[in-house]
Amino acid sequence: MKILRNYTVTPQLPEPLARLRNIVGNLWWCWDHDAISLVRRIDPDLWESSGHNPVAMLSLVSQERLGELAGDDGFLAHYERILQVFDEYMGSETWCSRCYGDDLQLDIAYFSAEFGITECLPIYSGGLGMLAGDHLKSASDLGLPLVGVGLLYQKGYFRQHLNYDGWQGERYQSNDFLNMPIELCRNPDGAPVVVEVTFPGRNVQAQVWKVDVGRVRLYLLNTNVPENQEADRRITDQLYGGDHETRIQQELILGIGGLRALNQLGIHPVVCHMNEGHSAFLGLERIRSLMESQGVDYEAALEVCRAGTVFTTHTPVPAGIDKFSADLVRKYLSPVIRDMGIDFDRLMLLGAECCKEPDSQFSMAGLALNLSGRFNGVSRLHGEVSRSIFKEVWGDLPEEEIPIGYVTNGVHHRSWISNDMDSLYYRYLGERWHTHPEDQGVWSRTESIPHEELWRTHERRRERLVAFARARLRKQLISRGAPLSEITGAEEVLDPEILTVGFARRFATYKRADLILRNPERLAGIVNHPSRPVQIIFSGKAHPKDTPGKELIRDLVRFSERPEFRKRLVFIEDYDMIVARYLVQGVDVWLNTPRRLYEASGTSGMKAAANGVLNLSILDGWWDEAYTPEIGWAIGKGDEYDDLAYQYDVEANAIYDLLEKELVPLFYSRGSDRIPRGWTQRVKHSIKKLGPAFNTHRMVSEYTKSYYVPAAREYAGLTENNLLNAASLSEFRKRVTSLWNTVRVKSVELDPRETLAVNDSVDVAVQLDMGELHPEEVALEAVEGWQDTEGGFHFGTKWLLSDAHQSSSGSWIFTGKLQMGSSGRRALSIRMLPSHPLLQNPFTWKLLTWIS
How is domain 444-693 classified at the CATH fold level? Predict the structure, then answer.
């Protein structure tokens, strides 16, 4: 049989339900419990079988069912209520419009390799994607003029299944774009929007798709188009799949293709935000585009690119950075450097993590750092770690001064809390908890929540979690071919009334899922205590190429099958957003055990905390800055040992001690009403402290105030008058770079006293032979700090030597006073930096010189 043509036939919406597609077509519904309830009400079975995909539901629901709903007064009233809320949301005044109005051009493009917005758009794998999705949602809530840019994966990330031995297998399912909440972008003539990126010997095309996420839009690129070669059609097949060549191809499509897609759609971002280094090639495209459209040279375009680009690193270890060989870079980027007019060594230097010479490997993080003007880690501790990892990028700059700040991650609360918890908050915190979750005053009302109501709310969630876990375990056992006795026994695992610990995340070995299993005998005594038992639910995926991670899952599954643990330890397959919600909403304790300094931030514990779950965690990532004794528990004190086995033993014993001596007694200490008031009081403290701080409204507003707005203003300053300022700054850079090494130190005069008192002033005078440089083109700074026993200098404070006058010999003398603010053994150094009114960050050019 020959198929002549395919058609898509969808049910026709009755007139009373005409705008139902408006609701399901905008992912706003996925963070509004009442909207989710409306969609589920259409057909509860279809809701589950479609993977919570309302677009697919509307293509499958019967015409008869739609007719029934159109005559159902209860459903119509619910539908009209949701329409009203949606329209008010889309049209209301926002935080951004109130704060910035129309005075500032603030068009932001947020690039990420993955976005976790909802389970029916499976283009995410883990924490990076969840963070990106929550970033978009809060940007929408705050009214930020932001668009997202990513890739539309044909198969996305894998679905996990375990064999009878507990070994992870991967299954990839092809996404049906026509039945997902996405829309193909089209030109005015109706043709699909297509962008091209030059690859070796050919151009690769990518179609552009649009996702409405509340008020913001997400644009996704997909190369599975007939015009491409077969291999190129598979570039956007899998998230983090393939080899190094596939990865560089994906990142070229994301960075270069993504920016071209925006420009083709008439969107010209002022600020580009790179969420991790995967999209760093966008900086090269910005430079090339500016050179082509504005007629400026490479140096001027580079300054503009840096001014308007923000880079967020999520990497806690150098091994996590994408790096490519010089041959692979030459193969794919030769056309780019040809268009920019730079040589290959210059490109390799841009991708270096050292300021002095090109590396043999091209680092995407190095490229992102060298093409951005603002940089940050994702927690306070990660900011410190990032400054250490990338210190070579800034040469001799003291680590404390490396300009990598931090914006601690958050979560979009309404996407992750249960409907029960949402209702509880609404009753006691008021409506502002939806609109102003970053407001400390809102969360201070947590104390008014009755202990009984808080406890009963959480008990309902634990009961639902246990029911869900049992059903999933039964399904897993059936698919593995387990004996009937084991399948039947799934109905008896876990207990809805006992202390429940959750551990769910990517199964990388450094996250140490097995730390709590280190002493099986002691753990068995804890989980099987006759009157105060404990149960633990695990979930998570190992990367398909991570054999040690897969072994960890297999060992854990085998461990859970031992008789003493069979009813108390459970592993839930195929960790995704659905599983995550059940866990963070239903467990009592969230366990987090990474090797310290190996977790950049972590957000699952924040999601749990928003649901009234207490954290038990290593002092790493966000918990290092969040922890206080009244809100949860810290495993260890942040100590690190050279002997890893010893460290693991110490921290495992700390977990057992905390469970036995603190968590379990507190949980089971009940009054006559069976309410553990000590526990619920700690939950209140946790919610009150963590709620306003660790949410994406606070995070996105912080990005806006400290990164986006300054970047937009700097970008505007450089691009006004046809980039005249950028050209001026570029010419200054060329001049000062060529003359920098001609400056000669003639003398340095310091206060001769060896002993000073706190607050004493020290006179400093430096005489320089400036050559052709002018005194206003340099800045001399006196830097005071302390020197350790190994000769290392630790930055303290700095003063500008602001007075400059010319001597009779023609040299220039810079003078100033600095005040000694700290006691102890102090050290003093003097350095020279370039200075220009348009130069926001003097360290960017790497011309720092320490005077000796």
Answer: Rossmann fold (3.40.50)
